[in-house]
Write a structure and sequence with these properties.
Length: about 270
């Protein structure tokens, strides 16, 4: 225990230090309690300085986050704007081609221009559905195919009961860069099936254990001639399909449909 001399006690009672901890402490007091108070005051000052620094850096981080949010919003607006322009541009080209088709006297040229107009319109549809799903760099491809097929059957099958266009298989999330050409491939194959077959058309998305995954379009129509070569046809459709399959690094398999009837086109992807 600390025994104080009279002189020490007098010196202790004489002075106080204002501010700091708010505790009273005479200046130059040699008592242990007073030195502890001095030490705490020093610590407190340090903590207050650190707190001030932390508040400052927190404020600048908040400002940075705000800036980032604004940038993301601006980018979102810009990408929506450019998507909108792309759709308008495709619509305009499709209309111009259709107009030119009606203006030409040559029936063969008119038919080709109509086909070209339809292809551009299909590309527009592919982009519109992608836009509606609102995924920037990937897409749930089965849901996407369902929307596309709904459109195609409303347009080309006219609700005829003996004609069915069904999407089967499992959902698969794929990169948009692959989804766009693959949707175009599907659309060409479905259009062919609508044109050349009569009954049910099945679009199937499935995993192939050990072989990646596959998209197939199967119909129960007359099927393809023996030795069918997609590169040697007169039409443009199979050439577009072959070239897009190559572009996405896939492989095209052509076979008979279910029960040896009709045609089956399969795009195999790793
Ligand atoms: N699902 C199918 N069933 C039967 N035959 C088919 C089928 N798909 C394609 N074919 C045959 O393959 C040919 C080539 O198809 P392709 O899509 O290249 O040309 P197209 O459909 O005749 O013309 P385009 O696609 O340029 O409008 C067709 O003309 C048709 O004889
Ligand atoms: Mg075709």
């Amino acid at each position: 225990m600390n025994i104080l001399s009279r002189a020490q006690l007098a010196a202790h009672r004489k002075g106080t230090t204002p501010g700091g901890t708010g505790l009273h402490k005479p200046a130059n007091c040699g008592l242990a309690t007073c030195s502890a108070i001095t030490m705490h005051e020093r610590e407190l000052k340090k903590h207050r300085a650190t707190e001030a620094k932390l508040r400052k850096s927190l404020a600048s981080e908040h400002a940075l986050l705000r800036q980032q949010d604004e940038l993301i919003q601006r980018q979102d607006v810009l990408s929506k704007e450019s998507e909108h322009r792309l759709l308008n541009g495709l619509q305009l080209i499709a209309s111009l081609l259709a107009l030119q088709s009606r203006a030409t006297a040559n029936p063969e040229a008119a038919a080709q221009l109509t086909i070209a107009a339809n292809r551009v319109a299909t590309l527009g549809r592919i982009h519109r559905h992608l836009h509606a799903l609102d995924h920037a760099d990937s897409v749930d491809f089965k849901s996407y195919l369902e929307k596309l097929c709904h459109d195609l059957s409303e347009m080309a099958l006219n609700g005829s009961p003996e004609r069915v266009l069904a999407v089967e298989g499992s959902e698969r999330r794929i990169a948009t860069v692959t989804a766009i050409p693959l949707a175009f491939i599907a659309s060409e194959l479905i259009t062919n099936a609508i044109k050349y077959a009569k009954g049910r058309i099945t679009v199937r998305l499935e995993s192939r254990p050990g072989q990646g995954w596959a998209l197939s379009v199967v119909d129960d129509g007359p099927g393809l001639p023996e030795g069918f070569d997609p590169a040697a046809t007169h039409g443009l459709g199979m050439k577009i399909v072959s070239s897009l399959v190559r572009q996405i690094g896939g492989r095209l398999q052509i076979a008979r449909g279910d029960d040896g009837k009709g045609a089956r086109f399969t795009v195999l992807l790793a």
